[in-house]
Amino acid sequence: MLSPLLQNLIQALRVLPGVGPKSAQRMAFYLLQRNVDGGKQLSEVLADALENIGQCQQCHTLTEADLCGICSNPRRDQSVLCVVGSPADLLAIEQSGSYQGLYFQLTGHLSPIDGIGPEEIGIDALMELVARKPVEEVILANNPTVEGEATAYYIANLLAEQSIKLTRIAHGIPMGGELEYVDGGTLTHAFNGRQQFK
Ligand SMILES: [Zn+2]
């Protein structure tokens, strides 16, 4: 029989995605029996992060400062704004090293069925930022899912009236991939987005 405190710990660990009862148990036993110091450090860092990390006032990505490192960097190209759906997507683009402009991070994608509308994901704030900054190009880098596409179309509609270049990242064959293993939807995108061979 588990003690009440141990039961609480196991239950609390299950807040993490992909952690079921067995994994939570294993984590709790590991921390208590084999890595008490690591556990203490985890609890301190976790409390600190949850207390102090919020949204960047400009791009809405996670940061403990008013403005994140990208928004406050004067060397970033202020005329290009890339719209992403999550901090993980922003990080992936950033790590590719291929983009030097600014970002705007939506909180997920539109999903009317779940009651998630434009305001909930930050489209109002995006429009306000576009109006305030000397943005010449908006790059839509929403995921190529049904919700991601719907979100991209919604933003494109709002920006259609403005003299801003609107682009969508290309979707297609992964580098090193083989055509025969690529699904039909991706192949269609790849064909529609074909470019002059240089
Ligand atoms: Zn920012």
TrEMBL record:
Keywords: DNA damage, DNA recombination, DNA repair, Metal-binding, Zinc, Zinc-finger. One of its GO terms (molecular function) is zinc ion binding. Belongs to the RecR family. This is Recombination protein RecR. Pfam families: RecR_C (PF21175), RecR_HhH (PF21176), RecR_ZnF (PF02132), Toprim_4 (PF13662). PANTHER family: RECOMBINATION PROTEIN RECR (PTHR30446:SF0). It comes from the Bacteria. May play a role in DNA repair. It seems to be involved in an RecBC-independent recombinational process of DNA repair. It may act with RecF and RecO. A zinc finger (C4-type) spans 56-71. The lineage of its organism: Bacteria, Pseudomonadati, Pseudomonadota, Gammaproteobacteria, Pseudomonadales. Residues 79-174 form the Toprim domain. The keyword Zinc-finger applies. It comes from Pseudohongiella nitratireducens. One of its GO terms (biological process) is DNA recombination.
